[in-house]
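Hi W.,

Here's what went into the run:
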Amino acid sequence: MDALLQQVFAGLATGGIYASLALALVMIYQATHLVNFAQGEMAMFSTYIAWALIEAGMPYWAAFFITIGIAFVLGAVIERVVIRPVENASVLAVVVVFIGLLVILNSVAGWIFTYTIKSFPSPFPRELPFGLRFMSPHQLGAIGVTVVVLLLLYAFFRFTPLGLAMRAAAQNPESSRLVGIRVGWMLALGWGLAAAIGSVAGMMVAPIVYLDPNMMSGVLLYAFAAALVGGIDNPWGAVIGGFVVGVLENVLGAFVIGNELKLSVALIIIIGVLLVKPSGFFGRVQVTRV
Amino acid sequence: MEEKSITALLGANGAGKTTTLRAICGMVRTEGTIRFSGDPIQGKRTEDIVRLGIAHVPDGRGTFLHLTTEENLRLGAYARKDRANVARDMDRMYAYFPRLKERSHQQAGTLSGGEQQMLAVSRALMLAPKLLLLDEPSFGLAPLVVRELFAILRTINAEERVSMLVVEQNAAMALELADNACVIETGRVVLSGSAAELKKDDAVRRSYLGY
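Here's what came out:
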């Protein structure tokens, strides 16, 4: 029983990280109807920036917030410079751009920071108070950070005029222009936000998977699975999907198929969801008149 | 167009009525000059034209279907600088269209056609515009609903001093509502004058009023 609980809590911790990254995927999907394959590499690159800042002697939390800021700017710049020119191109062209972005970010990170695996610090204390033994401090901290990020995002989209304008621009660009929303900027802002969320996910997962240019490939796969479980167009679904995938991955990995085959859980989930319920469990079913 | 009046734009299918409205809003590329209060506005971006006080109720209503009625109205006021008056204006819209107040927290996509048209008009008015462009406000609505809507448009024109340019297929109703009217054919104005004059005009009567 203890072992099972431990795996469940570990699953919730990584699940929160998948949830954040899945949320970043959903945000970009809602605006562009495409899945950003480079989301994981963007997060990895930001994590390296955080590592460099900490190595330079900056305190952890200062580096944490500065990295979020840098990731936001980089995300917005990528939208303006790389994505904007292919805005009206075919789906395949944009996917190629995403993959190009993935490869470029991966190589540039390897070139600047080398492919040697590095450890990344956790900001949380070594020992938990009250003798909690089901969770490591980092796991508990990661869940806390994820929850804070999710609440902030919810408040932003639900209660601020800018958040409302971003939702409007994603849904109906033409009408948005007619009420005076600068749709182009909203898209850039969306990319910035997605990149910022991704950077948090990267910094939270790095102490667990260690820092190297390929650290996010597995994480991104789980995030895809999470987004699909929830329905790729539903932010709440993505969050719930993230936690579900995290727990399933850990429990199945520990007790059923073994740690080596853990990643296949993500693939099984992806294929299973696509076969049984392609719109996900919380997604909107699109009906088209023919 | 005369300030603070209602002008109807009439014409057959494909005459260029909708295109005229879209040209004013900078949604299609144009040649020539479009002046608003004396200043040329052609070539500006839609977002900037809106900020000059031109609100557009587009063809197909342009509702944000997945947002609530209230969120749709709040978006209408997005480009406004006087945030303080937004709440007051929202109450005014609810007074004009009490049905919208009942549905304020409902997803706009679940509203009926007539309600969505009311919402589209209210959303445009939330900008506190100087000029309101209406593209086929009667489209798809029951005659009774159209009459109700047009009566309210008349009241709004009188109370809020908003100029209106109305594109309509239903020429009889449009001439009823408007002070002035223009008839266009394949992009050219062929006739214009006061609504009363046009109603009497034989050619208009035969081609557009059908009696």
